[in-house]
Amino acid sequence: MSVYSPRQFKVLCIEDEPEILRDIADELADHGFMVDQAPSAEAALPQIDAGTPDLIICDMQMPGMNGLQLLQKLRARGDAIANVPFVFLTAFGDRETAIHGRKAGADDYLVKPVDFDLLIAAVESHLRNAAHREAATRTAATLETEALVPGYDQLIDYLATQSVGMALAVIKMDTQPELARRFDGKSDKHFNRLILRLAHSKGLRVFRLQPHVWIAAMADAASLQAALAPLVQMELRDRLSSGTGLAKITHSVVLARTSTGEAPPALIDRMMESARLLQREGGARMLELEGPELSELRLAGAIRSELVGAIDQGELHVHFQPKVDAETGLPRSGEVLVRWQSPLLGHLSPAMFIPVVERAGLLPHVTDWVLQQTALAQVALVADGLPARLAVNIGASEFNADLPDRITRIFQEYGADESLLEVEVTETSVLTDPAAAEAIVQALHARGITVALDDFGTGYSSLSHLQNCTIDTIKIDRSFVTRVAEAGPEQTIVLGIIGIARMLGMETVAEGVELESQRAWLALNACDTLQGYMISRPVRFEDYRAWLADWSKAA
Q: Rounded to a whole number, what is the distance in angstroms from the first to the last CA of the chain?
């Protein structure tokens, strides 16, 4: 079985004539080789040091250091670069030039203008021979499986001999089925070779923990990260598609350092678990084990797993925050806000868990549950003769053509009155597709349900869109209300929003009212409704009902 495959090898082309350099590089790339380019010998040296090429094609005559001098410099080195196959290009076809190149250690000699068929045949021949020579020097144990990579036990033994602070990276392949398909089921062998070549060129120590999981070790963390960056998202020439299509192979990479406070096996277990989590969240990223991105992913995973039973176990509950008339202070309605008190995760705000719930596809369950709680609360308030208008937040993914019928079904089940319900949606929900949004709004209006545009001014507000969608209420975001009592741009913005709402026949609600000065300014400038801590914090239903009862007695 041949050990040669073009995708394994990198060819460095050195040529001072840009057109010739481009043509040679394109031809090699079309045949599946990885290609680096340099316009001079001086420019090539740092590239050679940064990553050992498998073969060098070099022009003989160049300004500055010529090809012969470069070859002599490389052959004099005592490392692996000294043995890299070297092919000369020259415009001279004479016997004397060829002899000088051969004596310096050149492996072949091609005359310009280059015959590309001859070029490819020469490159393949020299790389195939080099691969066979490399295979011949392997030990019997190495040839046994072609895995070549030491495993877990060797990793633990190696770390025991290293200083604390060694940089480690778990490398977990995201695209195993795709890779197996493209490599005819021999992906393990091919990718082990790739990992070994990477380790050889970058000075890494690599260990194979599972068929598609490796650990790389290096003293310097920055160098390790730079060496592994190409693995995160690799584009390979796609031999299974026509044209110049590319296949993408991605990896989840987790970085960490050894420390005195944690034994290597425990650290490796944590890195492996984090790599699995990263892969489940889409992979194709390189993250620090203790970094904020992985912390967020762990929390998101915990939220998803805990949410499944949160409703049944009574961990989710709703709070109610009053909205009052800006001029009289009389209650107008209340906003229903979902809260989660998890025994494992503690108190979680909606801003923390709702996005996770939405990405997990669980938001419909939460939305229906909130609507049920709203209907139950409304029925109780009506029975007590208290103001029973309530508002619920609807996520963008839930603001669809099915929403009106869902609300009707739930409110009818609990004997609640849809005409006492207000739906709050974000600008994104309404303005992304105004025509579809207007159809939903009209269906809600047909049931007596009003619609409020939440957090107005923080998204992509458009007066023309508002004209085409019959929203009932605009909620002014708290970021504008905070400094509304002070002369400045916030006052101008809020006055503009109030003016737009009045022009379009809409009401306004100011969120986040916490100071008397804010309340007074908003009332003076014709804001209709106020909501915020100055009136009341969000409270449990019994406290909200008591608050309304106290107001009723005072009135």
A: 93
